[in-house]
Amino acid sequence: MKKFLILIPCFLFLKTSAQESETIPADKMNIIKTNVTAYAFRNINLSYERAINQWFSLNIGFGTMLQGKVPFINAFLKDEDEKRFQNLRVKATNFTIEPRFYIGKGYGRGFYFAPYYRFSDVSSNTFDFYYDYNAPGGTTYQIPLKGQGSTSGNSGGLMVGAQFFLTKSQNLVLDFWIAGAHYGSGTGDFTMTSDYILTPDMQAQLKKEIENLDLPFVDYTVETNPNGAKVKVDGPWAGFRSGISLGYRF
Q1: Helical H runs in the chain?
Q2: The pTM is what?
């Protein structure tokens, strides 16, 4: 009888330990995902998450936006300025390293905070641009130019999200990016060339026209020459992240 009473707590301890080990997914520590909402903006993307322990994982993502119109260009350009960039097309790539700290059930499940680093690169096609040159005597001429260039940025940010396992097998994953924002710096160069030889007065008006575009969140300087202009981007780089990803856990 005494031996039996001694064995009971031992049995309960072993059972509890077994139950705890069942909740720890020794396998299925990897998740491959894609942000399905990003496809609405031509963004093809893939990310890989590896659980290191219950509360910490590392997520690495890559995305590329196919060449096309600038998303929401009318949100930061006036109607008359937008018309000048009618055939402007851009493509972009980004690479993100994102440590995740889970405060829920862990092992890739529950709410998380994710500080992250992102590298981004944006390049354009050869696009048309024009400006109205007011010549002496009151005559106005439309001066056409061809533009092309690229810019890249490094930024850091923080995202808050929640990840769920949708099936009993815990293979299908939904990752909800609730909100994220990043800030950093970017550099780039754009050239604008004209078939006309620009006089000093033409150059002065071109410089003023480009500077008056007043693009938000972008610092740039303009240098003109007889062949056109050079636009140098060197300033802040900011962005926002939100979306829904679907993935497979293995």
Answers
A1: 2-23, 79-83, 200-211
A2: 0.82
